[in-house]
Write a structure and sequence with these properties.
Layout (H helix, E strand, L loop, with lengths): L1 H11 L3 H12 L7 E3 L77 E13 L4 E12 L6 E4 L4 E7 L2 E2 L1 E5 L2 E5 L9 E10 L15 E5 L2 E5 L19 E10 L3 E3 L3 E8 L2 E12 L7 E3 L1 E8 L6 E7 L4 H7 L2 H12 L6 E2 L1 E3 L7 E2 L5 E3 L6 H12 L5 E2 L6 H19 L3 H14 L16 H18 L1 H15 L3 E2 L1 H12 L1 H12 L8
Parallel strand pairs: 1-17, 2-12, 18-19, 20-22, 23-24
Antiparallel strand pairs: 2-3, 3-9, 4-8, 5-6, 5-9, 7-8, 10-11, 11-16, 12-15, 13-16, 14-15, 17-18, 21-22
The structure holds arginine and zinc ion (ZN).
Length: about 525
């Protein structure tokens, strides 16, 4: 039985080398921890960043990745009135009810009203041979209104049962809404526990904000990974799927012995029994749903220890037998984290690292504490970009997806700063070249985008140029004080452009606000930086 499972698994892995390595590992005796101790060299990575605009496009647009699985099909029609297309902008759908969505400008049906999630306990039994999960998600939540019913977001999969405070609850599904009716109404202010038991093969979804890549749980070339920004986490666990409702998480992943399962936060337990290994990951820091991640494959863990005494633990994951360049490229991480700490203060979580897929992705994504990169995106400026997101994007999240420039624009400015320092170029020259490119491509206002431009040039680089223009206006001292204050005021929470402008007004005055507004809102790119 064990051997048959092993052969099935090996056959399902498309990469021959990976399949041999996995089989060898599985056949080895007592493969408890895949943890490999490896101290990082003092030498920084030799992969040089370049600040040339033509060679540093937005991380998301470097290449078109090929999806390996079909985009998700829509769920069965149900009796309840289905939103036409649950991810589309408000203008093309009816508005959500309070239970159905939070009214985000781009994703009105994402998230759900009436409660606040405190904690997710996600238990996944994964069969990589058929890409199926048998799962339960237990949610601790606080009712913020009297509730006779409430919704969770879940796309695809089959729901077997739902309990609220241990009692069986009625449920129905339409679109990605899982509507739950507890046997007893919940009083506003009361805490409750909901458990959803479900299974099936997770299916990627077409997210209109990410037209270049299917979103959610993905199996590709013998590896399982999740890329869920903004909406894809509902392909593998039921949630209040909006960054305004952050929570703590425990993610427990059971896989066939020999495989490694990684996730967010700290690995708190790893137990092997009966041919299966369970990895338990925990984060006591708040996290948005889209940053929750699962990675399964024949990965090798590279431990670097804490950045400094009491500092974050640094560890990376690469596919076993990865080429040496892969590990070498990651050696820049401690230096990058230290660089961002200089600007923003202590790293906000317990751990950081990169997991490198054994294939190209065309982008990287800042999944909290363990960013995902393709083997084409382990470049120092992209590593710097995802590290910077841990402060801006992850600790400080957006309160609406239309605010995306505050993640990507600010973080792109930080990666450009890092890249200039790393490559010894003049940031002013680099920014002048970006400015020319923005004018050339008539990049529109980063705060006035359409949903399909969430990860486009304007958001990343007109957003970055906005900060550079502000810095030239205020001078370095005020600028860096403002950046730091922006982080400090919203650390662990969410923010928006209005709050940022209020800060600029307070610390740099009304002329600075006017300047920032012209960069964020004017149709044409401002003529001077
Ligand atoms: N936030 C990511 C970055 O800037 C972009 C991820 C885009 N891809 C996606 N599937 N959402 O690096
Ligand atoms: Zn980014």
């Amino acid at each position: 039985m064990r051997l048959r499972a092993l052969i099935r698994l090996s056959m399902s892995m498309r990469l021959r080398r990976l399949s041999i390595a996995a089989a060898a590992t599985l056949l080895a005796t007592a493969c408890g921890g895949a943890v490999v101790d490896e101290a990082p060299d003092a030498a920084p990575a030799s992969v040089a960043a370049t600040t040339e605009p033509t060679t540093t496009p937005a991380p998301t647009t470097t290449a078109a990745a090929t999806p390996t699985t079909e985009p998700a099909t829509t769920t069965e029609p149900e009796t309840a009135p289905a939103p036409e297309t649950t991810l589309a902008p408000t203008t093309t759908t009816r508005p959500p009810t309070e239970a159905e969505g939070l009214g985000d400008s781009f994703y009105p049906f994402m998230g759900n009203g009436g409660y606040d999630v405190l904690h997710y306990d996600i238990d996944l039994d994964v069969d990589p041979a058929v890409n199926a999960i048998s799962a339960s998600t237990t949610i601790e939540a606080l009712a913020t209104a009297d509730l006779e019913t409430f919704n969770l977001d879940l796309s695809g999969l089959e729901v077997h049962s739902v309990t609220v405070d241990g009692a069986a609850a009625e449920f129905s599904r339409y679109g990605h809404e899982l509507a739950i009716e507890p046997p007893d109404a919940l009083a506003s202010g009361s805490q409750f526990t909901v458990e959803v038991v479900y299974s099936g093969s997770p299916e990627q979804i077409d997210d209109p904000g990410v037209p270049f890549f299917p979103s959610g749980w993905t199996q590709q070339e013998g590896v399982i990974y999740t890329v869920s920004q903004p909406s894809g986490s509902m392909t593998w666990f039921p949630s209040n799927n909006h960054p305004t409702d952050k929570a703590t998480y425990e993610i427990r992943i059971t896989v066939p012995e020999g495989l490694t399962a990684a996730s967010n936060g700290l690995l708190v337990d790893e137990t092997t029994a009966d041919g299966e290994t369970t990895f338990v990951w925990r984060t006591d820091h708040l996290m948005a749903t889209y940053l929750a991640a699962v990675y399964i494959g024949d990965f090798e863990r590279i431990d670097h220890g804490p950045l400094y005494e009491g500092g974050p633990i640094l560890r990376d994951y690469v596919i076993r037998d990865a080429p040496p360049e892969v590990k070498l490229a990651l050696e820049v991480t401690p230096e990058v984290v230290a660089y961002m700490e200089e600007l923003f203060g202590p790293y906000p979580f317990d751990a950081y690292g990169t997991i490198v897929m054994p294939f190209p992705l065309g982008f990287a994504l800042e999944n909290q504490t363990l960013s995902i990169h393709g083997n084409d995106t382990i470049i120092s400026w992209i590593i710097a970009h995802e590290v910077a997101h841990q402060w801006l994007g992850n600790s400080v999240a957006l309160d609406d997806w239309s605010e995306i420039w505050m993640n990507e624009g600010i973080v792109s400015y930080l990666h450009l700063m890092y890249a200039a320092k790393d490559a010894g170029t003049d940031l002013n020259d680099d920014m002048a070249r970006w400015h020319a490119r923005l004018i050339d491509s008539e990049a529109g206002p980063p705060r006035g985008i359409e949903i399909e431009d969430l990860f486009g040039l304007s958001v990343y680089y007109r957003g970055a140029a906005t900060l550079h223009a502000l810095r030239l206006h205020t001078g370095d001292e005020v600028f860096f004080d403002m950046l730091r204050a922006h982080y400090d005021r919203s650390a662990g929470g969410t923010t928006n452009t209005a709050e940022f402008l209020a800060l600029v007004e307070e610390m740099a005055g009304p002329d600075a606000v006017e300047l920032v507004e012209s960069w964020l809102y004017d149709e044409t790119v401002p003529a001077t930086l």
